[in-house]
Amino acid sequence: MTQQDPGPPLARAPRTRRLLAWLLDFTVILAIAALLGWLTFNRISAKLTGVPGLVGISAWQLVTSGGDLVGAGQGVGSSLWRSSVRAVWQGFAGLVLFAFAYRFASLALMGRTPGQALLALRVTGRRDGERPTRATMATRAAAGTLVDVGWYALACCLLVGGAIGLSVLCWILAVAVFGLSALLSLAGPRRSLSDRAAGTTVVSVFRITTVWTRLSATVRRPTPDEEQPPLAPVV
Predict the structure, then answer these.
(1) What's the main place this protein lives (predicted)?
(2) CB count in 10 Å sphere of residue 100
(3) Per-residue pLDDT of the chain (235 residues; tens, 9 = 90+)
(4) CA-to-CA distance for 147 and 179, rounded, in angstroms?
(5) E strands present in the chain
(6) FRET partner for 223 with CA separation of 20 to 30 A, picked from 4, 108, 114, 163?
(7) What does each C-alpha distance from 223 to 38, 214, 229 come to in angstroms?
(8) pTM for the full model?
């Protein structure tokens, strides 16, 4: 039995396709962020309906009030504010958990995210080119979530909690980390921060040479008449 030719090694993911794959995946995360934001502010608005003196106060005013609300006692205002801040924190925590679960589940099941699957990309080990283990996939998913969502979520939580200085520093760090990861994923070996943390790389699974070879073999396949051996000459 002859061994099947494994073919040439898979090529690095093209920049355009990798960027489009990230945009597709991030669009899903943004849609969930919008849904969680809507649910969170509805939760906060519902808290205001039980206080007659706060009928005209919006959810955003409550979150940014620091507990100083005209029309409510100091104790009531502080309690409502702390409750609204917890609701915001829970919303961002839910977003981070979803982003991680979205990445890890798709990587563990398919070896790539839905966006990468649509663009014919796959995550492999950097050294052996094989499918990474689940622990490696979890590391990559956690690092990617931290870069794309985690630092921004932390900055927003610090902001609504009143820690403005720490929030600004966290925003600066978030932008710097995101920009560095984007630069690394599009330049040189094209390995983002999450790839480097997990020891993985993103490759293209669409081989134009393989497709052309198979098409050529199909077109040139001999007919049944051509496959018959020639007749022996009559003596």
Answers:
(1) membrane
(2) 18
(3) 444 444 455 677 888 999 999 999 999 999 999 999 999 888 877 766 665 555 555 555 556 555 555 444 445 556 777 778 888 899 999 999 999 999 999 999 999 999 999 999 999 988 877 888 999 999 999 999 999 999 999 999 998 888 889 999 999 999 999 999 999 998 888 899 999 999 999 998 875 544 445 555 555 655 555 555 555 555 4
(4) 9
(5) 121-125, 200-204
(6) 4
(7) 65, 17, 12
(8) 0.76
